[in-house]
TrEMBL record:
Keyword Transferase: yes
Source organism per UniProt: Vasconcelosia minhoensis LEGE 07310
Family the UniProt entry places it in: Belongs to the class-III pyridoxal-phosphate-dependent aminotransferase family.
Keywords: Aminotransferase, Pyridoxal phosphate, Transferase
The protein, known as: Aminotransferase class III-fold pyridoxal phosphate-dependent enzyme
GO molecular function: pyridoxal phosphate binding; transaminase activity
């Protein structure tokens, strides 16, 4: 496999530009210079086909939590593939059972786990569960609860429903109209919109907006609220104290299900096994992907608390079951890898390590606050953002060309970092650092 991919670099570059459609990038420049072709990964480093090694400060796409080159994940995949490569979850298999059991044990509550293959699908699944749950529990005569409320800057995926919940204009333009019934409210983005208010006052204002939106829409039409505990790709927005508790209380008062999108936050990234554990507020459903297998296999999970699941229980032949299936959702191989990945996270204490190294890296990055273009440095664990501005007083964002120059300079220094999607030109620009949780002090210094 590796040998056949290694004929001649120039041929590969030509084959690439002739045949491969890359994500999120303009292709015309590739006729001059094909994109970097990565070949190997070990720990926090990836090496390209020319032998140049890069420090991966963004864990692939925020997913390689345990780092690259884990032989035991390859071994467990191999063993499972030989034993039983595939079985659908209309029936059952041992790695699927064990992983579902493990996730519930980590979360500390009773419920059920539905497996899919991507973060987008995990969220789509949650939206469909929310609608069906309400359809099956509603009082006779009431209308459908179908709306979903998310926050601006939140990203929830690329499929039509998940994209409808996503509230980043640039990602949606040209694909609209999307799915009806998805509404957005402001996120608690204190650096830009806190306007000097105390955390408590600002928190109350954000919650009031959510509650008023529900009121204006009619709570009886709203199925769910979805939030990333810490907004990730939207610019690393950490909620103020009391925010998640407030959202929970509003959902409880209005009969709306609360969904956490922990596709990025989960599995140690923020310094706890799960992001919401910083605030001790439980959702009704929680969606995982990325760090669930550290990107070694495509797997996601929608975890539903038992009272929600109860609404789907019925007599044989009745139609209250969840009519939803994904061919590759929760295959034996993917779930076996997920299980071993969690074992590594626990055995090596990687969530705790993320907390410690995150504090260290945050401290080092805060040294940059003296720089005229660094407006804010924020985050939790190893999910960190640096908001770049042209002018600190007005907080005018650094223009896109400036962001690109920073990213290029990092690349020139063999360091890969991320950035938020710039949804509205001139609105906000945040560099994102989220290295594998095995990052060392020296690597953090280099970053
Ligand atoms: N939710 C969040 C918070 C994400 O960051 C992403 C992807 O980056 C998704 C959902 C979608 O996940 P996927 O790309 O696996 O569909």
């Amino acid at each position: 496999m590796v040998a056949s991919l290694n004929p001649n670099r120039t041929d590969l570059g030509k084959m690439d530009t002739e045949s491969l459609w890359h994500a999120m990038v303009q292709h015309r420049p590739f006729s001059e210079k094909p994109p970097k072709c990565m070949k190997r990964g070990v720990g926090c480093h990836v090496t390209d086909a020319e032998g140049v090694e890069y420090l991966d400060g963004v864990s692939g796409l925020w997913c390689v939590n345990v780092g690259y080159g884990r032989q035991e994940l390859a071994d467990v995949a191999y063993e499972q593939m030989v034993e039983l490569a595939y079985s659908p979850l209309t029936m059952s298999h041992e790695p699927g059972i064990r992983l579902a059991h493990k996730l519930l044990a980590l979360l500390g509550y009773e419920g059920k786990v539905f497996f899919s293959t991507s973060g987008s699908e995990a969220n789509e699944t949650a939206f469909k569960i929310a609608r069906q749950y309400h359809a099956q529990t509603a009082a006779a005569g009431s209308g459908p609860r179908y709306k979903v409320i998310s926050r601006y800057r939140g990203y929830h995926g690329h499929t039509m429903g998940a994209l409808s919940a996503t509230a980043q204009a640039e990602r949606k333009l040209k694909y609209e109209p999307l799915v009806p019934g998805f509404l957005h409210v402001s996120p608690p983005y204190a650096y830009r919109f806190g306007e000097g208010r105390s955390e408590a006052v600002y928190n109350a204002a954000c919650l009031r907006e959510l509650e008023q939106t529900i009121l204006y829409e009619g709570a009886e039409s709203v199925a769910a609220v979805i939030v990333e505990p810490i907004i990730s790709g939207g610019g690393v927005i950490v909620p103020p104290e009391g925010y998640l508790r407030g959202v929970r209380e509003i959902c409880d008062r209005t009969g709306i299900l609360l969904i956490y999108d922990e596709v990025v936050n989960g599995f140690g990234r923020t310094g706890r096994m799960f992001g919401h554990q910083h605030w001790g507020v439980q959702p009704d459903m929680i969606c995982f992907a990325k760090g669930l297998t550290s990107g070694y296999m495509p797997l996601s999970a929608t975890v539903v608390k038992q009272p929600v699941f109860e609404a789907f229980m019925g007599e044989p032949g009745s139609d209250s079951h969840f009519r939803h299936i994904s061919t590759y959702g929760g295959t034996p191989v993917c779930t076996a890898v997920g299980l071993r990945n969690i074992e590594i996270l626990e055995r090596e204490g990687l969530p705790e390590r993320a907390a410690e190294m995150g504090d260290y890296l945050l401290g080092r990055l805060q040294e940059l606050l003296d720089h005229p273009n660094v407006g804010d440095v924020r985050g939790k664990g190893l999910l960190l953002g640096i908001e770049l501005v042209k002018d600190k007083e007005s907080k005018t964002p650094l223009e896109d060309a400036g962001m690109k120059a920073v990213l290029k300079q990092c690349m020139d220094h063999q360091v890969i970092i991320g950035r938020n999607t710039n949804t509205i030109p001139g609105f906000t620009n945040v560099l994102i650092l989220c290295p594998p949780l095995v990052v060392t002090r020296e690597q953090a210094d280099h970053l």
